[in-house]
Amino acid sequence: MRVLFVHQNFPGQYKHLAPALANLPGNQVVAIGEEANVKRVRDLHPRIRLLAYPEPRGASKQTHHYLHSSEAAVRRGQAVLRLAMELRKQGFVPDLICAHPAWGEALFLKDVYPGARLLLYLEFFYRAHGSDMNFDAEFPTSFDDQCRIRIRNATQLISLEAADAGLSPTRWQRDQYPAAYQGLIRVIHDGVQTRLVCPGVVGGFPLPGGGTLRSGDEVVTYVARNLEPYRGFHVFMRALPAVLRARPKAQVLIVGGDDVSYGRHLPPGQTYRELFCREIGSALDASRVHFMGRLPYARFVDVLRLSSAHVYLTYPFVLSWSVLEAMSCECPIIASDTAPVREIVEAGRNGLLVDFFSPAALAEKIISVLEDPGQMANLRTQARRDIHEQLDLEAHALPRLIALVEQLASRPAEQRA
Fold first, then answer.
1. Read out DSSP for 156-210?
2. Which of 47, 241, 259, 290 might form a disulfide with 22, Cβ 3.0–4.6 angstroms?
3. What residues form DSSP beta bridges with 95?
4. Which residues in the chain show pLDDT less than 50?
5. pLDDT digits (tens, 9 = 90+) for 28-54
6. CA distance 171 to 72
7. Could you tell me how far CA 350 lies from the centroid of its own chain?
8. Domains of the chain: residue spans and CATH
């Protein structure tokens, strides 16, 4: 079987699938990604051939602002097209192409390889209502924004028209796509390495400003790729003063960068961390609230192992891997009562749910969990059991992904003009 992976940040969601396929006898695996990202994963697997394209130029200043993402997508798609054409000249014709369509890389793949099956990783389809946009009145979107995202979806829709199948990690994410395409989309999560991401004793965890935490200390944890409203950072920060007052021994570990992954950027030089630290002021005890930035993976897992109460908040948006990893580590989970969190966290069974917009309710839940850790014992055990029995990488996710890939690769593809 010959498989082509296309992802600007390769391996991205194919971190486990691509090496697993490369390990199977007789398979040929080739991957295409953006040059700067590919350089970081040159040693991912000796049997994966990596090809890279330079970062494409974005839209010109004269381009209508609705079309900025579309023009950038076409340029990226053309960069991938050139590499694919060169591959074809060299004799590599894939049976299956696995691609993430959000950035335009999948736009022209069927034109190069009309006989290949195309499996799209369908992460998120933007909607003006019912998901992330207009969810948080504190950060409203304009009517102009609503019109712009309709055009932004065009890149995915063009790729979807050429696709043989789709893949989404949760039911809710699948259901954001137009009904006409949902029948093509399988729901299979990327999986959690529960064997590695598991409870454990932390003998010493050094803090940035000095001091050390150990298992048994009272630790509140919060994790996001970046500290921003989409992941409820503002709500978490506003809950902290009450928690710190009620629990004088509690330490808070906040993991995440200062960029913006999703949503609106602040003016140049400003960050949401600084914005909300200023808002809270002296009520935030800097000696007990530790901003860890982004951490190496092993140290991140130790943060989860230390957790006495783990907070996960999100708009109705892409579900973070971190909440699943926290559950796998038997963290006491306090999560926002939002989609798609409700697919994973069931209140009173494997975690607690709280109104996203209520810092007071969040603080009350955190304090209650810290005051009486025993109330979460069964929930913590059930959280890990659920992840292990449903989303374990080796036992469930990867076998299902490989079976889907093999099924598609053996099926004749519709020839498209």
1. HHHHHHH-SEEEESSHHHHHTS-HHHHTTEEE----B-TTTS-----S-EE-TTS
2. 47
3. none
4. 415-417
5. 999 999 999 999 999 899 999 999 999
6. 29
7. 21
8. 2-191+393-409 (3.40.50.2000), 205-390 (3.40.50.2000)
